[in-house]
Amino acid sequence: MRFNDMFENATGDKVEIAGFKLETFKAAVDFCYAQDIAEFVTNDENAVELLLFADKYDFKTLKPKLEAHFQNLLTTENVGIMVAAANKVHCQSLRQACIDFVRSLLNNNKSGSNIDISIFDAMFLQEVLQQALKP
Asked: Residue limits of the BTB domain (predicted)?
């Protein structure tokens, strides 16, 4: 569904946006008007919801910016959330960044290498392993 469709399909003077917080809608509108949304996306939960919103309503410029934003801010605490988000919005570049991040932790034996792998889906773990074994 495109963002414009939401308004074209509205009845009366209200537009209903199910499944998203009002703050998320406001951040999307702010982005459209070139307002700074950096503070909103510092919170991983807000940022992921905005990515889901951008995907659902086909925000062609916001979605890639959020994907790039996430790729640069991966941590041991948020990588599981980012993998799930990448899966939901079919973002291969973000998923690959998560794979690279986890591989880096495991290859470098950093303190984060004791990451809880149970948070990842089997396909993700398989891809991590396959890529780790490539020469």
From this structure: 3-72
Per-residue pLDDT reduced to its tens digit, 25-38: 999 999 999 999 99
> Which amino acid type is present at position 50?
L
Using an 8 Å Cβ cutoff, are 55 and 63 in contact? yes
Contact 62, 54 (CB under 8 A): yes
Residue 83 burial (CB < 10 Å; 0-12/13-18/19+)?
Answer: buried
Cβ atoms of 51 and 89 within 8 Å: the answer is yes
Measure the CA angle with vertex 79, ends 132 and 31; round to 5°: 125
Right CATH number for 3-133 from 3.30.280.10, 3.40.50.970, 2.40.30.40, 3.30.710.10?
3.30.710.10
In 3D space, the residue among 15, 13, 2, 125 whose CA is nearest the CA of residue 57 turns out to be 2
pTM, two decimals, is: 0.80
Phi, psi (deg, nearest 5) at residue 37 = -110, 15
